[in-house]
Amino acid sequence: MTGGAGYIGAHVVRSLQQQGMTPVVLDDLSSGLAKFVPDGVAFVQADINDTVAVTAALTDHGCVGVIHVAGFKYAGVSVQRPLHTYTQNVTGTASVLAAMEAAGVKHIVFSSSAAVFGTPDTELVTEESATRPESPYGESKLIGEWLIADVARAREGFTGVCLRYFNVVGSATDEVYDASPHNLFPLVIEALLAGRTPRINGVDYPTPDGTCVRDYVHVGDLADTHVAAAQALLAGTPLKPAYNLGSGTGLSVRQIMDTMAEVSGIDFTPEIADRRPGDPARIVADGSAAAADLGWKMSYSPSEMVSTAWSARKASGPA
């Protein structure tokens, strides 16, 4: 799998192992950490844009499918770095698909994103909702979906499925934590560990408590569903082209802050800042299709999402 040394990818690797499968990790370590790859798992340090290296990894290890998690995932930064974003996410995905063809590998699970929807015009996003990405990141993920669909039409026996997910949080093992400098959970946790006060951007949204509402999904559930999708493709089970891995309800930023205070034991009152440009009031997805076809479920409470994230970060030691 690509990106297997990252926060999400490393969880997928462990889920593959738990299901008795043999993962092979390919990662350039631009954001992943080698220590996240479990001992005994084959690891190839390479860039996904190096098609020859990806082909060799697939061939040398006898791979039968790809879970493609590697990518540049920061929507806000992508506005300043559009060419870098496209190189990593569009050219990189094309490279992986070319390597798969060269190696005779015909099945791919693609990590897509809720960013393909942009600002939704409905309260609950479904697989049929309009795709109107509002950042180079969202555009690049949608093009990745198109590439896979085009290859599926052109290449006999080729199958792929795209998993669109939202805010991934928590940890299923203290060995792996979210080290992103852009995601809400690590931003709050790092602030608390450093003695700083976390910040809320905007408290005047048309939501129950005035703060943004988002889908927060636990990385353990997400990883298990990647594996379920891979198993379904290998078994020849018909799947939709894409699935939303959402909660159907969502949580507000204020709810997350309150839970952080409760779990950490650090009582704080968040600083209030202005809204960030482009932040929709609410983005929540219907995960019922993924539940029906892939066994998707939300098996962690908000408190468990926060407590597992806190535990994994604390176990990693000083930043």
TrEMBL record:
EC number: 5.1.3.2
Keyword set includes Lipoprotein: no
Entry-linked Gene3D superfamilies: NAD(P)-binding Rossmann-like Domain (3.40.50.720), UDP-galactose 4-epimerase, domain 1 (3.90.25.10)
Catalytic activity: UDP-alpha-D-glucose = UDP-alpha-D-galactose
GO molecular function: UDP-glucose 4-epimerase activity
InterPro entries per UniProt: Epimerase_deHydtase, NAD(P)-bd_dom_sf, UDP_G4E
Name of this protein: UDP-glucose 4-epimerase
Species for this entry: Propionicimonas paludicola
